[in-house]
Design brief:
The structure holds two protein chains of two kinds. By secondary structure, chain A is an alpha/beta fold. Chain A has two domains: 6-315, ABC transporter type 1, transmembrane domain (ABC transporter transmembrane region fold, Up-down Bundle), CATH 1.20.1560; 334-551, P-loop containing nucleotide triphosphate hydrolases (Rossmann fold). Chain A contains 17 helices and eleven strands. In chain A, strands 6-9-10-3-11 form a five-stranded parallel sheet, with helices on both faces. In chain A, strands 2-1-4-5 form a four-stranded antiparallel sheet, with helices on one face. Chain A starts with 5 loop residues before the first helix and ends in a 7-residue tail after the last strand. Chain B is of the alpha/beta class. Chain B folds into two domains: 6-323, ABC transporter type 1, transmembrane domain (ABC transporter transmembrane region fold, Up-down Bundle), CATH 1.20.1560; 354-561, Rossmann fold (3-Layer(aba) Sandwich), CATH 3.40.50.300. Chain B contains 17 helices and nine strands. In chain B, strand 7, helix 17 and strand 8 (542-546) form a beta-alpha-beta unit. The longest helix of chain B is centred in the middle third of the chain and has 54 residues, at 219-272. The two termini of chain B are 50 Å apart. Classes of the chains: A alpha/beta, B alpha/beta.
């Protein structure tokens, strides 16, 4: 583990500012520590010299001032560290979310969503300790320790040399033990992540487990998961704490050595009490930041391991982020240049796919597909499970890179930042917390109540009230209702932005035949307005209502 | 420890390791802290006494003491950390089990109100936070408390007024520091956990629905909204940071005051005489009284941190207590004290007849019944298609039949009222294939085996073939292929088939299949329906197929339609 990952400074500007403020406060703190030790020593030597309380009152007053200043500085440093942590977390979180947006849905779908969101939330919180406890001490180590050693050297060469000999041993041990810890630590972080999904898996699947009378057996599973967690963590801690032990031992032993050496020289009269006491008070302070760094080592490592995970996401540029359709004018953002955007009246013409090929990794999912979808028609796309219907839809959306020509009315509709010609609903309803109205009008400039009602009506969901409040993931609707609300959302977009193409992926799989018939009637209205309506479905009723059925053939993989 | 509900207190009790595990760490901690104070006291005495140039022999004990304290302090500290962490982790298992034990009776119907992202945060975060109770709250409080008390007594014996000053400073630092920062940060603290939950929910929503947000040009506003939630969390965190900082500052202030007090009262005592231990107070002893407060306050610095940790732990405990309902809601069934048996455990299942008369059921927290007035009879060999519009309560009925929900009216199995049977007994004979089957993040084999753990690989492959997954499973690499988190690596139809395979393996005498075709293409759906109903015909089994899609006449023996309630 590097004590300070330069990527942290690169990705989070707040970290830089904190380092600057922290360095200034650390310097001031060091001066105060020296002043306190000096004034305290002076008070004691004056007392030992037989001075009365009244004569040393001014020294005591100065000591009181130093005490006040010290506490103010301590407060400021803590506030700065906490602020720094909060700001850095926000900045990193924003960056990762932006990166996810840039990488696109297809990449995100290949990751575990729970894992991703754990990294962005819980994982990042591990940085709290790094900032609040570790980094300030690291700064103090770099600022206070050298200054204090210099002062000790100046006062008493022998003590100074003791400190100088012992202090470098500490980083050496830190590095040695750190190397051992590192691999174990990373392993622990992975285990922790697995455990985070493991325990949730048991709780989330509890209904299923109960059906099979397995709920009682999970006690053993939870016990073994947690026991594994304990042994793994203790394995790491045994080493991490060992480093702490070495640090503390080095620090307290050298203080003991200094005390004994000073004591012996005082007996000989080779040293003054003032110097001895001053050095004795300063010596622990020289070790303190370093000891703190050691003590917070594993807490900090947790935070850095989490940050590492984020940096991996942020640094990863391996896959093309913007899928490109290889047509002549397929510049990024070509979607914006679509000339007929928002002008359904001027029918743009057919949606044409010429030689469209989609690859997933090494395998070809769709090979040289030619198809045409005409305005005013309801087309059904079908094919057996796994033939790549959803992949084709993803390619049309620009989520998956494809080659070949994709034109609407002769204009290339390439994947860009927006797709004003297209409204879509996927297999998963993908609804959000909020009202049904908010869900239906998602992404629209304005939510028009009349149009929302119409969209719900045409989706066959007239009975769903727009004011219904949904929980996370659209909780509160039945499966069929959620599906129709998702279709209504696409219909609303089609109506509101006058877009030319409406694609619905399995919109009626959870619907009864009545609801399905109402949806199909609604789709007919939309087609009659001059739209290209494409439905991916197997349902006989949908196929019967279609003007055109396009069969996707399975590729034979050898 | 006021302001904690009984439920939260129960949760906290689960987090505190038993004394047998906890005591070794505590003793080592106190030992280490006392040694740290003794090291400074002994060193200071050694130096000041040496300055008076006595004979070396008089300092021998002090020299040995300084070295011993230095070594034992570090050794004991290491032991403390190892044993206390080990105890806390051991307790984590008890904690998780304790919480799980409470969830079991109410799941799944009694837990529906919790958002998934929130649930994730709660279980990962709050349970981890609860571990801080022994480590960051109880242990430091006891260690610092005992060490401070011992030191106060020691100083009091040297210079009584200095001891009293130290006591007053410690108490003021403890009380004032805690109260001051408490009032500043208590609100922010309570804000933090829900805000973290809200943020986690929003992050999960964005991550899971990135496709929808992108397609609807709604990603940017959503990210702005997320940034706003992030901002709220950040502000709350910043408010708290001011509180934490104040605490440390107050402690530092009183640490200085204690040192000043020791000087102020100690210097005149050189003339007038000290406490019981040192009636003729000498400078070396005075220096001990002056420097010990510094070491004590270093140990005492743990207390404000412990107070802050306590507030955090308290919020977590409260939230955990909220997830887990203390009392089982009236809508969730509870076993009667002496349940009857349908079949003795060693007896093979005979035929089972299921009868419903005028059955009503309701979800927890809902006023309206979700399903009402159902009358139905299922006998072995029956294959009944239950239809009805969305929202008519088909899924509610399925959940009621496996006793996830309680009912009014009558539900009898072989003439015995289901209420009088153990829930596990009902679920032994009545199986359910859920509409959204849960697949565990494991292999296909493990996802099947828990339905019947004695099944051989050949049997598993046979049942996969029956649900039409033989080829697919072989392509995936056989039974060892993983299904991904929540079945992420399999399609909806495949998940449904795996779930069905599970149900077939378990061989329930009565099988309820809730919307199996919801995510299956229609060509496959017919085959699936045929598989289900064929399996029933040859196994003296009754099947209730809940489906909104039409089922061919020749496959079913009867049809029932639930009227819509609204």
């Amino acid at each position: 583990m590097r004590p300070l990952d330069p990527r942290l400074l690169r990705y989070a500007h707040a970290a830089r500012r904190f380092l600057l403020i922290g360095a200034l406060l650390g310097f001031a703190q060091t001066l105060v520590v020296i002043a306190f030790a000096w004034l305290l020593t002076r008070t004691i030597t004056l007392t030992a010299a037989g001075e009365s309380l009244s004569t040393i009152m001014s020294t005591l007053a100065a000591l009181a001032c130093v005490v006040v200043v010290r506490s103010v500085l301590i407060w400021l440093l803590e506030v700065a560290a906490n602020r720094g942590a909060a700001q850095v977390k926000s900045q990193l979180r924003a960056r990762v979310m932006a990166k996810l947006a840039e990488r696109g849905p297809d990449w995100v779908a290949s990751q575990q969503s729970a894992r991703l969101s754990t990294v962005v939330t819980t994982g990042l919180d591990a940085l709290d300790n790094y900032f609040a406890r570790y980094l300030p001490q690291l700064l103090l180590t770099m600022i206070a320790t050298p200054i204090l050693i210099a002062v000790i050297l100046w006062q008493d060469l022998a003590s100074g040399l003791t400190v100088i000999i012992v202090i470098p041993l500490i980083p050496v041990f830190m590095i040695l033990i750190g190397k051992v810890t590192q691999s174990v630590q990373q392993e622990q972080w992975k285990a922790l992540q697995r455990l985070s999904t493991g325990f949730l898996d048991v709780v989330g699947g509890l209904g299923t487990l109960k059906i099979y009378g397995r709920e009682r057996r999970q006690f053993d599973r939870i016990r073994s998961i947690t026991e594994e967690y304990r042994t793994r963590t203790m394995k790491v801690l045994r080493v991490s704490f060992l480093s702490g032990f070495v640090l503390e031992l080095a620090a307290s032993l050298s203080v003991a050595l200094i005390a004994v050496s000073i004591g012996l020289r005082l007996i000989d009269g080779a040293l003054l009490l003032g110097v001895g006491l001053f050095v004795l008070l300063l010596a622990p302070e020289a070790f303190l930041p370093l000891r703190q760094v050691g003590a917070q080592f594993h807490a900090a490592a947790d935070g850095l391991a989490a940050a590492e995970e984020l940096f991996t996401i942020l640094d990863d540029d391996s896959v093309a982020t913007v899928p490109a359709v290889s047509t002549a004018d397929a510049a990024a953002g070509a979607g914006l240049a679509f000339p007929y955007a928002g002008q359904l009246g001027q029918a743009a013409g057919a949606l044409r796919l010429e030689g469209v090929t989609v690859r997933r990794g090494d395998s070809v999912v769709i090979d040289q597909l030619h198809a045409e979808f005409a305005p005013g028609e309801l087309s059904v796309l079908r094919g057996v499970s796994g033939v790549g219907k959803s992949t084709l839809v993803a390619a049309l959306l620009g989520f998956v890179p494809c080659t070949g020509a994709l034109t609407l009315g002769g204009v290339a509709v390439a994947a860009g930042a927006t797709r004003p010609w297209l409204a879509w609903s996927g297999q998963r309803p993908g609804l959000f917390r909020g009202t049904v109205a908010e869900n239906v009008a998602l992404g629209a400039a304005s939510a028009e109540p009349g149009r929302i009602v119409q969209a719900l009506d045409w989706a066959g969901a007239a009975e769903v009230l727009p004011s219904t409040v949904l929980g996370v993931n659209g909780d509160g609707l039945s499966g069929g209702q959620a599906q129709r609300v998702a279709a209504a959302r696409a219909i609303y977009r089609a109506l509101a932005t006058e877009c030319h193409v409406l694609i619905l992926d399995e919109p009626s799989s959870a619907l009864d035949s009545d609801a399905e018939a109402r949806l199909l009637a609604g789709l007919r209205h939309l087609a009659d307005q001059g739209r290209i309506v494409i439905v991916v479905s197997h349902r006989p009723a949908v196929v019967a209502a279609a003007d055109r059925v396009i069969e996707l053939q399975e590729l034979i993989h050898v | 420890m006021s302001d904690v509900t009984t439920a939260a207190r129960d949760v906290l009790r689960l987090a505190q390791p038993r004394p047998r595990w906890f005591a070794p760490g505590l003793l080592a901690g106190i030992g280490s802290a006392v040694m740290a104070v003794a090291l400074l006291a002994c060193s200071a005495w050694l130096i000041t006494r040496a300055a008076e140039m006595p004979s070396l022999a008089l300092l021998g004990m002090a020299i040995v003491g300084v070295r011993a304290f230095a070594i034992f302090r570090s050794v004991l500290r290491y032991l403390e950390r190892m044993t206390s962490h080990d105890a806390a982790f051991r307790q984590l298992a008890e904690l998780r089990l304790g919480i799980f034990r409470r969830i079991v009776p109410v799941a799944p119907a009694g837990l529906a109100s919790t958002g998934r992202g929130d649930l994730l945060t709660r279980l990962v975060r709050d349970v981890d936070d609860l571990q801080d109770l022994p480590l960051r709250v109880v242990q430091p409080l006891l260690v610092a408390g005992v060490t401070a008390a011992l030191s106060v007594i020691g100083i009091w014996l040297i210079v009584p007024m200095a001891g009293l000053t130290l006591l007053v400073c410690l108490m003021l630092a403890g009380v004032l520091g805690t109260v001051l920062s408490g009032s500043l940060s208590a609100r922010a603290d309570r804000e933090l956990a829900p805000l973290r939950g809200a943020l986690a929910d929003e992050v999960l929503e964005v991550v899971e629905n990135l496709d929808v947000l992108t397609a609807f040009d709604a990603l940017s506003p959503r990210l702005v909204q997320l940034a706003r939630t992030d901002e709220r969390l950040r502000r709350a965190t910043l408010r708290r940071s001011v509180g934490v900082g104040v605490q440390s500052a107050v402690v530092a202030l009183f640490a200085g005051a204690a040192t000043l007090g020791a000087l102020f009262f100690g210097i005149p005592a050189l003339e007038s005489g000290g406490g019981l231990l040192s009636p003729d107070l000498l400078v070396p002893t005075l220096v001990v009284a002056v420097l010990v407060p510094m070491a004590v306050f270093e140990v005492f610095g743990m207390i404000p941190l412990a107070a802050a940790a306590w507030r955090q732990v308290r919020v977590s405990a409260r939230r955990v207590a909220e997830v887990v309902p203390q009392a089982v809601p009236a809508e969730i069934p509870v076993d009667v004290v002496k349940p009857q048996e349908l079949f003795s455990p060693d007896q093979a299942f005979g035929p089972v007849v299921l009868e419903l008369t005028d059955l009503d059921a309701r979800w927890p927290g809902q006023v309206d019944t979700a399903v009402a007035g159902v009358t139905l009879r299922l006998a072995p060999g029956d294959r009944v298609h239950l239809a009805g519009p969305s929202g008519a309560g088909k899924t509610t009925l399925a959940q009621t039949l496996v006793r996830f929900l309680d009912y009014t009216g009558s539900y009898r199995l072989n003439g015995v009222e289901a209420r009088l049977l153990a829930q596990s007994e009902v679920r032994r004979v009545v199986g359910l294939c859920e509409q959204r089957p849960w697949l565990f993040d494991d292999s296909i084999r493990q996802n099947l085996l828990f339905a019947r753990d004695t099944a051989t690989d050949a049997e598993l492959e046979a049942v996969l073939a029956r649900v039409g997954l033989a080829v697919w499973a072989a392509q995936r690499g056989g039974l060892d292929a993983r299904v991904g988190e929540r079945g992420a690596l399999v399609s909806g139809g495949q998940a449904q088939r795996i779930a069905l395979a599970r149900a077939l393996l378990a061989d329930f005498p009565v099988l309820i299949v809730d919307e199996p075709t919801a995510n299956v293409d229609s060509a496959g759906a017919d085959a699936l329906v045929r598989d289900i109903l064929t399996a029933a015909a040859d196994a003296h089994r009754a099947v209730l197929l809940i489906s909104h899609t039409p089922v061919p006449d020749e496959l079913v023996t009867a049809r029932v339609t639930l009227p819509g309630l609204r």
